[in-house]
Amino acid sequence: MDDTKPTRNYKDTLFGSLFYSCENAVENAKSLYKALTGRDVRNAEKCRLEDVLFRQFLNDVAYIMDDVFICFIEHQSTLNPNMALRLLIYLSRTYERFFTGKNLYRSTLIKIPTPEFYVLYNGKDKLQTDTLTLSSMFKAKTDQPQAELIVKVIDINYDRLDIAGLNDCKVLSDYAFVIDAVRKYNGDIEKAIKECIEKGIMPDYLKYHGSEVVNMLFEEYDAEKALEIRGQEEFEKGEAKGRAEGRAEGEAKGRAEGEAKGRAEGRAEGEAKGRAEGIVSTLVSLFKKGMLTLAQAAEEAKMSPEEFQRMATAQQ
């Protein structure tokens, strides 16, 4: 459909190199496509968005297969929940490149390649879903959304390839082994590459593209570690914030409860003191009128006669 040669205007990942940029990328992509769909294809035409105009919409791998299917494949170590929308943008931009101008105003129906979307995931966290949909992003949910895009999500970690049924793609299996080795050696890329070559994992590719592979793997592993560190930092920040907010809430609640208790106790003490003073005042009045003796009044007031006498004298 288009004979525009791809340009390397951004840094490829090892996955992108193997399935899109290297000398055997087209054959590798055919093998991967067969593993994903079960279909054999004769022709695979690259159609990744790499134009300067579309630089902000770069995607990993995109091919038109036998002029019938258009396949978008994204590789991620951290699953992006917005991939359905991103892939819709990639698809529309790609269609726009091939079907513009007068073609859209024909009276006859234009046939377009059938789109297929895959995210190949090799992060450390367990996948929570095998499908991402555009409709799940809609603000208003309907029983029959009038627009939909479905993305298949597949775990391609080395120990999960067999479950995913993708072991038939040798290049993908080798790629997964390389990534697993890098993690096993905790980022010692040269040691991981050495083991892969010794075990016959992409020996020619790793030898020929040695320094480039090291750089690509270093950036991928560095980004993965950065995301882990950032996640841990955000967790620690959230934990500290939660602790501070909990402490503040606890102090505020404690202060409020303390104030309420203090008011209640003060009110009770005040009422008790008022009642006691009222009783003593009445006893003093009765004593002064001769209705109670000093001993009787002092006993009722729970005072000694001397204390009661001083209080009666003070109230004159």
Summarize this entry quickly.
With 316 residues, this protein is an alpha/beta fold. It is built from ten helices and six strands, in the order ααβββαβββααααααα.
Main beta-sheet annotation? 6 strands, mixed
Shape: elongated
How much is the radius of gyration in Å?
A: 40 Å
Q: Give the low-pLDDT segments.
A: 2-10
Helix content: 40-55%
Strand coverage percent: 5-15%
Based on secondary structure, the structural category is alpha/beta
Overall description:
The chain has 316 residues and is of the alpha/beta class. It has one domain. Strands 1-2-3-4-6-5 form a six-stranded mixed β-sheet, with helices on both faces. A hairpin with a 3-residue loop joins strand 2 and strand 3. It is elongated. The N terminus is likely disordered.
Descriptive terms for the model:
single chain; 316 residues; alpha/beta; six-stranded mixed sheet; 10 helices; 6 strands; 53% helix; disordered N terminus
Outline the fold blueprint.
Layout: H1 14-21, H2 25-37, E1 44-46, E2 61-65, E3 69-76, H3 83-98, E4 114-121, E5 131-133, E6 150-155, H4 161-164, H5 170-184, H6 189-198, H7 203-208, H8 210-288, H9 294-300, H10 305-314
Parallel strand pairs: 3-4, 4-6
Antiparallel strand pairs: 1-2, 2-3, 5-6
Helix pairs in contact: 1-2, 5-6, 8-9, 9-10
